[in-house]
Design goal:
Layout (H helix, E strand, L loop, with lengths): L1 H6 E4 L1 H23 L2 H7 L20 H18 L3 H18 L6 H13 L10 H4 L8 E3 H21 L3 H4 L2 H8 L14 H23 L1 H22 L4 H8 L6 H8 L10 E2 L5 H17 L11 H4 L14 E10 L5 E3 L8 H7 L3 H15 L7 E11 L5 E2 L29
Antiparallel strand pairs: 1-2, 1-3, 4-5, 4-6, 6-7
Helix pairs in contact: 2-4, 2-13, 4-5, 5-6, 8-11, 10-11, 11-12, 12-13
């Protein structure tokens, strides 16, 4: 059964067209980051970009370097779509994209993390064996089939993403639709739909549909009788998200994934009418079966564990943020914070920091309401302000945070020197004061 599921040869039309869609979309994402000013706001202009804590050595290139960096990624996306030097192009893109993802957290997005995973998987797939320049140039042998595991790896990855996204919404602020109201307040000035999006009955529809769609879409796409209906619902859902939330390529990438759910013959007739169909029902177990099962077993085990790690960390993740990232917890909270950073020099002199001199507007909001940002900023101040041979202490005083419109509550312990305590990524940081949120 397992051999037939994973190692049966099937038509590769879905993988070929997905490669084309994927390359074009990531190219648009990279060039769009330059054109819209996203790159300038989040990586070029800031004095400090708040990289992932274990990757503080990843610093942006100076001058026009990051524009060149993203342009290279955009060109690599085009090469991926064309199937030109595919193995090099997808590997280089994956490395560069992962670097840009780890380089900054201010504009963190689960979709950027998904791109890291998908591009990494695409490095392993034979997505260039047809309709590619590599084939036309004689660099790669033309094939019209692929192993079944290509489809099922993508399906399982998507099932994990959507299912955990649905489960994460099963909490008070989403179930009473208060979070939907918060999300829609900023859409009031949208033409035609702005006022409609403020209606309570619309919030109930959006909130309920969000849970049900995430939970059911993958099973519905897999089952032939419900596939077309699920596809139509996907179009509506993702176009709504694209228009209302303006979240880049993710809605269109999500739609591109649906090619793996339709019959290969359907995809071939739609996109590759001249392609030779593959109709053999042949199972060929490769000699790398055992390492394959071990590697992907470990990979998917991690994908299952990461989104639930916050259950093993003290306090509420909605408050502490510990275990939030890489967990498919999307659009679940709005945070705002207040407070002031105080630096104490070795001679006892106190210095109160004007964060406007150090941080962009987006970063200012983060350091006052996210604990890891506060800790990292304390580390930055320690290095930036200390004189030779001097040790500084950094405190965040009068720290309060509001979650989803609740009254502000004390957040960071004002007596803890954030500059001189270690970061503990796998357990609760006790300098985050206990939450007052309902479980």
């Amino acid at each position: 059964m397992l051999n037939r599921l994973l190692f049966q040869k099937i038509d590769n039309s879905p993988l070929i067209i997905f490669r084309i869609f994927f390359g074009l979309l990531v190219s648009l994402e990279c060039f769009g980051a330059i054109a819209t000013g996203w790159l300038k706001r989040n990586i070029v202009e800031p004095k400090y970009t708040f990289p992932f804590i274990d990757f503080v050595w990843l610093e942006p290139l100076t001058g026009p370097g990051m524009y060149f960096y993203f342009s290279v990624m955009g060109i690599l996306g085009i090469c991926i779509a064309l199937g030109f030097k595919y193995r090099f192009s997808i590997l280089a893109f994956t490395i560069l994209w992962t670097g840009s993802y780890l380089m900054q957290k201010t504009a963190y997005n689960n979709h950027y993390y998904l791109l890291v995973l998908v591009s990494s998987l695409m490095c392993l797939f034979p997505a260039h064996t047809d309709y590619s320049l590599d084939v036309r140039m004689g660099k790669v042998q033309k094939e019209n089939s692929m192993y079944g595991y290509v489809k099922w790896i993508i399906v399982l990855q998507l099932f994990i993403v959507y299912t955990y996204a649905s489960i994460a919404k099963l909490y008070g602020d989403w179930l009473d639709f208060g979070m939907i109201e918060i999300l829609m307040k900023s859409k009031l000035d949208y033409p035609l739909v702005g006022n409609l999006l403020q209606k309570a009955w619309v919030h109930k529809i959006i909130g309920s549909f969000g849970i049900l769609f995430d939970f059911l879409v993958i099973p519905a796409l897999l089952w032939k009788p419900t596939r077309k209906g699920a596809f139509i619902a996907s179009i509506f859902f993702h176009l709504f998200n694209s228009i209302i939330f303006q979240i880049g390529i993710f809605p269109y990438l999500s739609l591109a994934f649906t090619v793996f759910f339709f019959e290969p013959e359907t995809i071939r007739k739609l996109f590759f009418k001249r392609k030779i169909p593959f109709s053999l029902q042949k199972t060929v177990v490769p000699n790398y079966k055992k390492p394959f099962l071990i590697v992907f077993g470990i990979y998917f085990l991690l994908q299952l564990i990461l989104p639930i790690r916050h259950y093993f960390i003290k306090d509420n993740v909605l408050w502490t943020e510990e275990g939030h990232r890489m967990s498919w917890r999307m659009m679940l909270r709005e945070r705002s914070g207040t407070g002031q950073f105080k630096v104490i020099r070795s001679n006892g002199k106190e210095l109160f920091i004007d964060i406007h001199k150090f941080l962009t507007i987006g970063q200012q909001r983060k350091v006052l309401s996210y604990p890891d940002f506060a800790w990292q900023f304390a580390q930055y101040l320690k290095q930036d302000l200390k004189q030779e041979g001097e040790e500084l202490s950094v405190y965040l005083i009068n720290s309060k945070v509001s979650i989803n419109g609740r009254p502000p509550a004390p957040f960071i312990d004002p007596n803890v020197d954030l500059a001189n305590i270690p970061w503990t990524p796998f357990k609760h940081s006790d300098w985050i004061l206990p939450s007052q949120l309902d479980d």
